[in-house]
Write a structure and sequence with these properties.
repeat, globular, 327 residues, Probable cytosolic iron-sulfur protein assembly protein CIAO1 homolog, 1 helix, 4-stranded antiparallel sheet, mainly beta, WD40_repeat_dom_sf, Methylamine Dehydrogenase, Chain H, 27 strands
Length: 327
């Protein structure tokens, strides 16, 4: 591990073991890890299960609180908590999305969403928890409306990608949806006044597996003012840091970018303050060359007070890391 500027160090807090196949994705419960509520994390795997992990408040160590099984019949590819932290959505290669509810510490499957023709690859809730997006190998994106009583209704099926849709992600504050596909495009979807969803922009510069991280920006304030959609533009490319496929990138609240890749490594970047007139640029502040024994499939920053990062790997483990400044 190498530190840049000597400003940060990365501490491995704990390795979480229990999955018997590769771990595809991790998700922090946004309602946990704050105000005295123990931090909670979900992980999903090729072993067809989801594990819920919780931090012991007295010892600070992590333990497996629940194993969610006997619902999905194939790999569970994606998991995501609702903003309230009460519901967990899991997407599987069995073409279904399961909705789990935390009832007094026990997790019950309260709904199963069907409609995709085959593998569901990503699930994501919008900021208010009123909508859930799913996508899959059938090249489609589904938007589900959350109704009372844990009922879900398909509000729209979005067609437009020409290859598998690998990931969906909502904007953190607005009901704007991003979908990323093997067709080397990112599509941005928004709702018009008639409750119809349509593609408002296609980012064709998203060049797939080119070993780079691209940064885009828009005028969010102008968009939120109601003046209509404001396009996103490419402002920066980070290249030369990973030498194999980059699988996951996540931005922390403090603006620290973490990336995980097939080179078994995790990298950390911050915006450089060199005053470049060409737009923002980023520098690497830390790297861990052997974060896992195999591919790093997912990296996610926690919502809590600590700078915790969770990583999931083909080696079947989840690791909890803490990024700490060097004093």
């Amino acid at each position: 591990m190498e530190s840049h500027d000597g400003a940060w160090s990365l501490k491995e807090v704990q390795k979480l073991e229990g999955h018997t196949d590769r771990v595809w994705s991790v998700a922090w419960n946004p309602a946990a890890g704050v105000a005295g509520v123990p931090a909670m994390l979900a992980s999903c795997s090729g072993d067809k299960t989801v594990r819920v992990w919780e931090q012991n408040p007295s010892s600070s160590s992590w333990f497996c609180k629940a194993v969610l099984d006997e619902t999905h019949t194939r790999t569970v590819r994606s998991c995501a908590w609702s903003p309230s932290g009460k519901l967990l959505a899991t997407g599987s290669f069995d073409a279904t999305t399961a909705i789990w509810e935390n009832v007094g510490g026990d997790f019950e499957c309260v709904s199963t969403l069907e409609g995709h023709e085959n593998e569901v690859k990503s699930v994501c809730w919008n900021a208010s928890g009123s909508l859930l997006a799913t996508c899959g190998r059938d090249r489609s994106v589904w938007i589900w409306e959350v109704l009372p009583g844990n009922e879900f209704e398909c509000a729209s099926v979005l067609q437009g990608h020409t290859q598998d849709v690998k990931m969906v992600q909502w904007h953190p504050t607005m009901d704007i949806l991003f979908s990323c596909s093997y067709d080397n495009t990112i599509k941005i979807w928004a709702e018009d006044g008639d409750d119809d969803w349509h593609c408002v922009q296609t980012l064709s510069e998203a060049n797939g597996d080119d070993l780079t991280i691209k940064v885009w920006e828009t005028d969010s304030a102008k968009m939120m003012s109601g003046d209509g959609y404001v396009p996103w533009s490419h402002v920066c490319t980070l290249s030369g840091y990973h030498d194999r496929t980059i699988f996951s990138v996540h931005w922390s609240r403090e603006g620290i970018i973490a990336s995980g890749a097939a080179d078994d490594a995790i990298r950390f970047f911050v915006e450089s303050k060199d005053g470049s007139v060409d737009g923002p640029s980023y520098k690497m502040i830390l790297r861990n060359e052997k974060a896992h024994d195999m591919d790093v499939n997912s990296v996610r920053w926690s919502h809590g007070e600590n700078r915790f990062l969770a990583s999931a790997s083909d080696d079947g483990t989840v690791k909890i890391w803490e990024l700490v400044p060097v004093i």
